[in-house]
Design brief:
49% of the residues lie in helices and 16% in strands. By secondary structure, the chain is an alpha+beta fold.
Length: 280
C-alpha cells in the first residue's frame, strides 16, 4: 500500500512538472523531448501524457506529434482568478488610470516569489500601436513590422508570472513584506539580469526596497524589458497589510512621464481607491 501511494505521488509530481515545462515552451514538445527533460522512460511519459490528454490538460498536434498546454488549464486559471475578488474592485481604477495617463495599468500579487499579473488594461497609445500593426499585417502594400515598443504577448498576459526584482509591481510587493520574509526572499533569489538596467546586486536591491517602503511607490525603468517603464503603489487590506500592487507602464517616451510627481499622485490615488473598495 505504501509503495502504491509513493508511485501515485511520483506520477502526480511528474505530471505537474510536465505541465510546467510545456507552459514554458511555445510550440510544445514531443514525448521523447519531455521524457529526456523529466529523465523518465518514454513509456512512463507516454502514460502520463495520455492521461493528461484525455482530461484536456494537454493537446497533441497530429502533424508534429508535439504536446501543448490544453484548454482545461485555462478553465482552471479562470476559476482561480475569479476567486480573487480584488479584480472586480480594481477594474474601475485601472480604467481611470489608463484614461488619465494614456499608459497601460495592471495589478499583481506575490506568488511563489514571483509577481502574478491578475488584471491588466491597455493604454490608448498601446491600443493605437496594436491597431497599426494589424493594419500593416493585412496590407499588401507594405510589409508587416513590429513596432519597437510593441510588447510581446507573454509580457502582458493575465496570469503571467513576472520577475519580482526587476518590475515596479515586484519591488512594491517585496518592499512591504515583513523584514524576515524579505531577507529570506533575497537570500534565495537569483537576480537574473534581464536588461543592462536590471539590478543584480542584492545589497543595492535591498537599499532600493527600503526607499520604496519610505516613499510608498516603486519605479522600474527598462529593468525587466527594454522600452518599458513602470510605476507602482501598494494596495492594503483592512489590517494595513500590503496584499497587492497597482502599476502603470509604457514606453519611456510617453508624455505621461514628463510629470512624474503627478503620475505618482495618480497611481497612489488609484491604490488607495482600490484599498478602500476592497475593504468596504
Amino acid at each position: 500500500m505504501i509503495a502504491k501511494r509513493a508511485a501515485s505521488s511520483n506520477s502526480l509530481e511528474r505530471a505537474l512538472e510536465l505541465l510546467e515545462i510545456l507552459e514554458r515552451t511555445p510550440g510544445g514538445l514531443r514525448n521523447a523531448d519531455l521524457s529526456r527533460a523529466l529523465t523518465i522512460p518514454k513509456s512512463t511519459c507516454s502514460y502520463i501524457l495520455t492521461r493528461l490528454e484525455r482530461k484536456g490538460y494537454v493537446l497533441r498536434d497530429p502533424t508534429s506529434q508535439s504536446y501543448k498546454i490544453g484548454l482545461t488549464t485555462v478553465a482552471l486559471a479562470h476559476g482561480a482568478l475569479r476567486e480573487i475578488g480584488l479584480r472586480s474592485m480594481a477594474e474601475p481604477a485601472l480604467y481611470r488610470l489608463t484614461t488619465e495617463t494614456g499608459l497601460s495599468a495592471g495589478i499583481g500579487v506575490l506568488e511563489r516569489g514571483h509577481v502574478l499579473l491578475i488584471d491588466r488594461v491597455e493604454g490608448s497609445r498601446f491600443v493605437d500601436r496594436a491597431a497599426q500593426d494589424a493594419a500593416f499585417a493585412s496590407s499588401h502594400a507594405r510589409p508587416r513590422r513590429m513596432l519597437p515598443d510593441y510588447r510581446a504577448r507573454e509580457q502582458r498576459d493575465i496570469g503571467r508570472e513576472l520577475p519580482a526584482h526587476s518590475t515596479a509591481l515586484g519591488k512594491v510587493l517585496l518592499a512591504f513584506l515583513p523584514r524576515p520574509e524579505r531577507l529570506e526572499w533575497l537570500a534565495q533569489a537569483g537576480l537574473a539580469r534581464r536588461t543592462p538596467r536590471t539590478i543584480v546586486s542584492k545589497s543595492k536591491l535591498l537599499s532600493e526596497l527600503e526607499a520604496v517602503r519610505t516613499q510608498g511607490f516603486a519605479m522600474a525603468d527598462q529593468e525587466a524589458y527594454l522600452g518599458v517603464r513602470a510605476l507602482s503603489a501598494p494596495i492594503l487590506d483592512s489590517s494595513g497589510t500590503v496584499r497587492a500592487a497597482v502599476s502603470v507602464n509604457g514606453h519611456p517616451a510617453e508624455s505621461a512621464w514628463e510629470d512624474i510627481p503627478a503620475l505618482i499622485r495618480l497611481v497612489k490615488a488609484a491604490a488607495q481607491n482600490i484599498s478602500d473598495r476592497t475593504n468596504l
